Amino acid sequence: MKIVIIGAGGRLGAALVREFGAKYDLAGFDHAQLDLSNLHDLREKLGGMNFDVLINAAAFTNVDFCETQRDQAFLINAEAPGVLAEICNAKDAKLIHFSTDYVFDGEKRAPYTEEDQAKPISAYGESKLTGEKNVLAADERHLVVRVSWVFGPDRPSFIDAMIKRARENEKVDAIADKFSTPTYTQDIARMLPQFFDRGVEGGILHFANAGKCSWQEYAQWALDCCERIGVSLKATTVGACKLTDMKSWVARRPVFSVLSTAKYTELTGTPPRAWREAVTDYITRFYSKK
Ligand SMILES: NC(=O)c1ccc[n+]([C@@H]2O[C@H](COP(=O)([O-])OP(=O)(O)OC[C@H]3O[C@@H](n4cnc5c(N)ncnc54)[C@H](OP(=O)(O)O)[C@@H]3O)[C@@H](O)[C@H]2O)c1
After folding, report:
1. How many Å apart are CA 192 and CA 128, to the nearest integer?
2. Distance from the CA of 5 to the center of ligand 1, in angstroms?
3. Cβ of residue 257 lying under 6 Å from some atom of ligand 1
4. What is the largest CA-CA distance in the chain?
5. If DSSP codes are grouped into helix, strand and coil, which group holds residue 71?
6. Would you state the pLDDT for residue 288?
7. Taking the CB of residue 92, how many other CB atoms lie within 10 A of it?
8. 15 lines ligand 1 (CB under 6 A)
């Protein structure tokens, strides 16, 4: 099976390249090698290649910049995925495209299912939702995987920033009134091959580690894990702050965006592992020697 990964330099894309490199005939493109905003280049470069699965892990992910660079956000997150889907159609290949919990408005207080209506409250969310629609309009057998709060060793995320702050400062705090679920890139990479076959499930699929938490709970667990393995910290308790304290944020963010993984569990017969277990695994593996 030949696989092409776009976004190979990103947090998720790099994890996918590492996980699949030994098992599949793989080609990866980072931003410098393939620019999603150059639709002509996309058609030229990918149109001339042979592959069975195209994975798009690239996106304009800076939520605040998307608000002020709306056209660029829509070009990269919405228009380009539609072009990728068309390229795949011409080859009878499957597109696996990543999307986000930020397509929801966050007003629900139970996990969002694939059937729930998406109502984004930011340009990022709007552009990602339009991208999903463009992919599935080209062929509903393509797969859109929505993930939340992605973390992993290939690019620092919230969890790494919190650990860094706790190592350098006596006092740290994190938002206590915003809820979703962390998702480990390694767990995404391990589950994804079940969906490579074009005959297998298309449409929208939610994937995240199991459970839910606030950013404060997430950060506290990360510090607890660090303490347990002997990482020296100046702060060991995470204080609470509010979403409304984040005065520098330009874009609105959903306050509750937990993704239901019931469909994933039903399809595969295996639930994702709990977020605490995934975070423990990550910290034990990548912080032990630091
Ligand atoms: N991170 C999260 O918490 C989160 C949550 C929900 C959903 N997601 C989704 O998960 C997917 C993977 O995100 P991630 O966490 O891996 O984010 P990431 O680390 O920001 O990776 C995105 C990658 O896309 C690349 N990229 C940006 N603009 C591009 C362009 N015009 N052409 C080609 N490549 C471009 C970036 O390259 P440069 O850095 O060089 O620009 C980066 O390597 C995305 O679809 C994202 O929307 C992420």
Report:
1. 20
2. 12
3. no
4. 57
5. helix
6. 86
7. 10
8. no
Q: Return the bridge partners of 6, or none.
A: 29, 56
- Ligand 1 neighbourhood includes 104 CB (under 6 angstroms): no
Instruction: Kindly tell me if the per-residue pLDDT of 290 is higher than 80.
Output: no
Residue 188: which of 236, 239, 148, 128 has the closest Cα? Answer: 148
Instruction: Find tokens 């030949």 and name the residue.
Output: 2
Distance separating alpha carbons of residues 56 and 46, to the nearest angstrom: 12
Q: How far apart are CA 109 and CA 150, in angstroms?
A: 21
Catalytically active residues, by annotation: 124
The answer on pLDDT for 277 being more than 80 is yes
Answer yes or no: is pLDDT of 189 > 90. Answer: yes
Please write the tens of the pLDDT for every residue from 145-165: 999 999 999 999 999 999 999
First vs last C-alpha separation in the chain: 38
Which residues of 115-217 form beta strands (DSSP E)? 143-147, 150-151, 172-175, 179-180, 183-184, 203-206, 213-214
How far is the C-alpha of 190 from the C-alpha of 178, rounded, in Å?
Answer: 28
